[in-house]
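Lecture notes, unit on binding sites. The following record was shown on slide 14. It pairs a sequence with pyridoxal-5'-phosphate.
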Amino acid sequence: MNIQERDKNAVWHPFTQLKTAPLPIAIVKGEGAYFYDDKGKRYIDGIASWWVNIHGHSHPYLAEKISEQLHTLEHAIFSGFTHEPAVQLAERLLKRLPENQSKIFYSDNGSTAVEVSLKMAFQYWSNRDIPRTKVIAFENAYHGDTFGGMSVGARNAFNLPFSKLLFDVIAIPVPVKGKEEEAIQAMKDALEHHDVSSFIFEPLVQGAGGMVMYSAEALDTLIQLCRDGQVITIADEVMTGFGRTGKFFASDHLQNKPDIICLSKGITGGVMPLGATSCAQFIYDAFLDDDKMKTFFHGHSYTANATACSAALASMDLFDLPEAFGNIERIKAKHEEFLAKIRSHSNLADARQLGTILAFEIRTGEQTHYLNSLAEHISEFFIERGIILRPLGNIVYVLPPYCISDEDLDYIYGAVEEFLNSL
Ligand SMILES: *Cc1c(COP(=O)(O)O)cnc(C)c1O
């Protein structure tokens, strides 16, 4: 049996209708911005393997540091114990995070980083005997696939079977260009409810919702309103962190800093699963008490996994080199240049960019983004040309590892243009 047949016999893939999906491509090797399949075909990883990869695949420095850690201490229980990689990573993250952030709570993926943030906010109020249990979230949001994450995310085809089981959220419009006032008014109305615990948002870019972008000014206003209403603000930086938006964190574009920040995806350079939730001191302080019931009773078996922390530390080392932000600036400039060239293409409904993220909204008669029939066709078109770009419905986006070359970016842009011309 070949690997595809063995896969079909034994494996269940994410977000995939396995009855009709084409057989998966078997990847045997990753190197820099490239993957190689079992037939020797090369692909450019144009979406950083679901937005996680930062410095390229199979990076020798990351491999070396992780291997060293594996030979020293691979993992240890994190309740009652600690270790150098976890402490050092917390110190280094706090140095990079906005100044108001003061503690790091570890978990192991983006959804758990979000769960932790919501539970911190709910229990903050519970510990103070103030009944605040509502959450404000943006329409069209994505915060992960666990029940808390689904609850604060957009209600759509993906979570329909669970809709009755999700907790209530006050959804407000995203302050995209021209809708700022509407969003601000909706926030003011939402804050009229006196039981709001927190406001969670993807800062500046809604990823899974279709790379929807909005301004830092609008978000600053919304955060200020929450602050005035004593509502905890949570930035879900799972996708936007680690340079994606052109700054280290999307929150670095803001004047008003969030109280809690969720991190994952790029945190380890895309090598190991790890989640982290940072918080301001006042949140942490609300859990310090002689009463044991005020404890944050949350943890995962792999909380602060030492190997994952060592990968994250190695990734931070690479970020300290001038090349890292040099590459981010280079990709940003290349994206801008191509955007200017393609923006007015007749088959584009919209095109937008922030930092290393470039997105194209293909003009189509169909409304539903995700189940849009165009998506499969788009994927195939790029796969044939040795490029991995998995659209979100009719939204094609380029979100590459920072090591991608100018030549490979030009090759992707050329294919995007060819695709637009073919419609
Ligand atoms: C991907 C993502 C998540 C979920 O992260 P997982 O590691 O896939 O669970 C949460 N929030 C945002 C903004 C994301 O992009």
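Take-home: Residues 367 and 382 are 23 Å apart (CA to CA).
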